[in-house]
Amino acid sequence: MLASGPLTSPGLRDNPLIDSEEELIRQAQRADSDAFCVLAEHYERRIYSLAFHYCHDSEDAEDLSQEVWLRAYQAIRSFRGESSFYTWLRRITINCFLNRRRARSFGRRGQNIEFSSLELVSNTSEASGISSERTLHNRILLEKVREALSELTTQQRLIFVLKHYEGMTYEEISEAVGCSTGTAKKSVSRAIAKLRTRLDVAVGTTDCVPCAAGEF
């Protein structure tokens, strides 16, 4: 979970003026790299998680995250506060997704699976006393979700992630990705259909497929 307290670091604690995100942004816009680093530390896990949900490869997600932070650092002076800072970062992240997709620079690397999320489920299950049978079930479920999403096009996967991981509306997605709302809805429907097939969930069931996907 992201820190909810003041955004500070050892190098900035002696400055009583820097006690809010707004002030950190102003300092970063004045080329204060320490202030920008504090902002990056606060959001880096969220940006990396979004990148990983999109590309399903830890190395690609790390590379993409670094690209996002480089672009954010270069463009910080253009931030006008018309949206939240995270929304601005997410816009940069989406642009990086789209640019990478157009350049076709994401390597397959043999469809590598990032097991850290699966290990987390296993460790959490053992710590809470959940049976090994349930742990195995969770592993199988997560693998099925990964396989279903990997069968989507990069744009379909991006739209699904923005809808069910970021909670964006179809209108916001269409504007961000540069597609119609109809295309966005069809992409999400296709993703859910893939998940229903992989997870063997009947149409009309009360089981929440997107929630299962969100566990990945």
Key terms:
2 domains, Arc Repressor Mutant, subunit A, 216 residues, single chain
Secondary structure topology:
Elements: H1 21-29, H2 33-55, H3 58-75, H4 85-103, H5 116-127, H6 132-150, H7 154-164, H8 170-177, H9 181-199, H10 209-214
Low-confidence stretches: 1-6, 8-18, 105-130
Structural class: mainly alpha
Form type? globular
Spatial extent as radius of gyration: 19 Å
Order of helices and strands: HHHHHHHHHH
Distance between the termini: 16 Å
Tally the beta strands. Answer: 0
Output mean pLDDT. Answer: 75
Largest sheet entry:
none
CATH architecture annotation name of the largest domain = Orthogonal Bundle
- The number of helical runs is 10
Helix content: 55-70%
- The CATH homologous superfamily of the largest domain is named Winged helix-like DNA-binding domain superfamily/Winged helix DNA-binding domain
The overall number of domains is: 2
CATH class of the largest domain: Mainly Alpha
Word description of this protein:
The chain is built from 10 helices and no strands. The chain has 216 residues and is an all-alpha fold. The chain has 2 domains: 21-103, RNA polymerase sigma factor, region 2, helix turn helix motif (Rna Polymerase Sigma Factor, Chain: A, Orthogonal Bundle), CATH 1.10.1740; 116-214, Arc Repressor Mutant, subunit A. The longest helix is centred in the first third of the chain and has 23 residues, at 33-55. It is globular and about 55 Å long. Mean pLDDT is 75; it is low at 1-6, 8-18 and 105-130.
